[in-house]
TrEMBL record:
The chain crosses the membrane at residues 47-69. This is DUF4179 domain-containing protein. It comes from the Bacteria. It comes from Diplocloster modestus. Keywords: Membrane, Transmembrane, Transmembrane helix.
Length: 517
């Protein structure tokens, strides 16, 4: 085969009409960097130049080469997004409702067994409309997927509208997933995960629960991803000059249910028919006046807390900002401009002072009829870890324009091992009337089959062997004829052996190894 490939390359080179394509040298450098390195402790072997040329050419011809995951650091490709509960039996103090401790988180090691089994390296390049798209890596299980891909300008210049002074938000016109060439599929989004330090280059993450009819496990199937247009926000964001919210939160005591009042709940239904519910609370005022921003030095934080995956923030405005403008306030990653507070239904933050009849026992935000403060609820953050590098900003959630019009397509096998464990014939009925028929757990997601007339799910969590709980907020479910299929992705990589129970609408379902297969 090597001789045949060598002959093919020589034949191509002998034709006068063949020219070196634009960017070939740069592409070869990227391929060389991506090649697996020798393992430590092994003798260094000389790699023949002829073999290197043939291998590089083969990579260019094939454009999609899965690589054994333990030969390269998947964490580097995914910008170290993977975290796991600490193995030390010392859960962090509770920051959520209900009084259950949340585990401390730590980075997943590069040689973590799950990443080795459930990860594959890709190197698939598609160039069009002045941009190069490179699929870099996948991590998945039977019904969920992480995919990292790079986007670069072909001329090496910054993205259109990108400057050092302004943070711009990028989004795609459309991302469509199809399995095994089927006409039907599902749409999804992608979030930028790099730090924005390299002009004209960005890394995006697709984190998606996969729902394909008649497919129990997507591992081993062929996935096609079609991407349309790269768009840029017309609205720049005015980012507050401040410490990140994770650091500021240390100035406040952890909340208990006595520290906030339940105000109500909102329920929304997205374009895919998935319903999501968010409780609304009023966080009590403390009388604290924490100065936190050089952008608006008059403003103060009175209290802040993380409750059920949402951030609550009490602000003293003190005339620094028009109260009407705070509805345009967002939480953003100051490194790359990603808006973290955007919720699937399209709203970002709720100004709770717009509701009538505010409970005076929670503290007044008005003096002599003038609004001096506000309470904000930032929805859909999921876990306190999101607050690292997160700051407040005004603007940036408005209209978008197409900066790069074109299409880019990837197609590759989901070449990884499905590490899921199936708990069959459970037939356990919880106190809330939900009967769990079957459960599938993996280190990154959960799938439930339930018999119930319940059409709303909340207060979902994993209980670990040390009694700590990980809140599940990335929920999707469909119900028909009294049967509900629910899927959820975790906010961390969790060892299945550490999961002692699953919390479903507040009720505890203990796991039995005898039910697993």
């Amino acid at each position: 085969m090597q001789d045949s490939l060598d002959k093919k390359i020589k034949d191509m080179a002998s034709r006068e009409s063949i020219r070196v394509p634009k960017g070939f040298d740069e592409r070869m450098e990227r391929i060389k960097v991506s090649l697996p390195q020798e393992r430590k402790g092994q003798k260094t072997k000389r790699f023949p130049l002829r073999a290197a040329v043939i291998l590089a050419a083969a990579l260019v011809l094939c454009l999609s080469i899965p690589v054994v995951a333990d030969q390269i650091n998947l964490n580097q490709i995914f910008k170290n997004i993977f975290m796991k509960p600490s193995e030390e039996q010392n859960p962090a103090p509770d920051t959520a409702a209900g009084g259950s401790p949340t585990p401390a988180m730590e980075p997943v090691e590069a040689d973590n067994p799950f990443l080795t089994q459930a990860g594959s390296i890709l190197f698939q390049i598609v160039e069009n409309a002045g941009l190069s798209y490179t699929a870099r890596g996948i991590v998945g299980d039977g019904n969920s997927l992480y995919l990292a891909f790079d986007v670069e300008t072909l001329d090496g210049q910054p993205f259109e509208g990108e400057t050092a002074e302004e943070i711009k938000q990028f989004q795609f016109g459309e991302i469509f997933l199809q399995l095994d060439g089927a006409a039907m599929g599902q749409y999804c989004g992608a979030a930028r995960i790099d730090d924005g330090s390299v002009p004209g280059k960005a890394t995006f993450l697709i984190k998606e629960t996969l729902r394909f009819e008649g497919v129990d496990s997507v591992a081993g199937h062929q996935l096609k991803i079609s991407i349309q247009d790269l768009r840029v926000s017309d609205d720049s964001m005015k980012v507050f000059d401040m410490e990140d919210l994770a650091a500021l939160s240390k100035n406040f005591n952890e909340v208990t249910p006595d520290d906030y009042l339940e105000w109500g709940a909102t329920e929304s239904e997205g374009a895919d028919g998935v319903r999501e519910q968010h409780n609304i609370y009023l966080l009590k005022r403390t009388g604290k006046k924490l100065k936190f921003s050089d952008t608006y030095p008059e403003m103060e934080i009175d209290n802040m807390a993380f409750i059920e995956g949402d951030l609550y923030l009490n602000l003293n405005l003190n005339g620094a900002v028009d109260p009407n403008d705070v509805s345009d306030m967002n939480i953003v990653n100051r490194k790359n401009g990603e808006i973290l507070s955007v919720h699937g239904s399209g709203y970002n933050a709720i100004n709770l002072d717009t509701f009538e009849g505010i409970d005076p026992t929670a503290g007044s935000d008005y003096v002599n009829g003038e609004q001096i403060g506000t309470r904000m609820q930032f929805i859909g953050l999921g876990s306190p870890e999101k607050l690292k590098d997160a700051v407040l900003a005004l603007g940036g959630a408005g209209s978008y324009r197409t900066a790069y019009q074109g299409s880019w397509e990837f197609e590759f096998p989901l070449d990884y091992e499905d590490t899921s464990v199936v708990y069959e014939d459970m037939n356990q009925t919880l106190a809330n009337g939900i009967e769990v028929v079957q459960m599938t757990l993996s280190p990154i997601s959960m799938k439930l089959t339930m018999k119930t007339e319940v059409d709303s799910f909340h207060d979902m969590a994993l209980e670990l062997d040390d009694g700590s709980r990980i809140t599940l907020d990335d929920l999707q479910w469909d119900g028909k004829d009294g049967t509900v299929q629910l899927q959820a992705m975790y906010p961390a990589v969790v060892d299945i052996d550490r999961i002692s129970a699953v919390i479903i609408n507040g009720e505890r379902l203990a796991l039995s190894a005898e039910k697993a297969k």
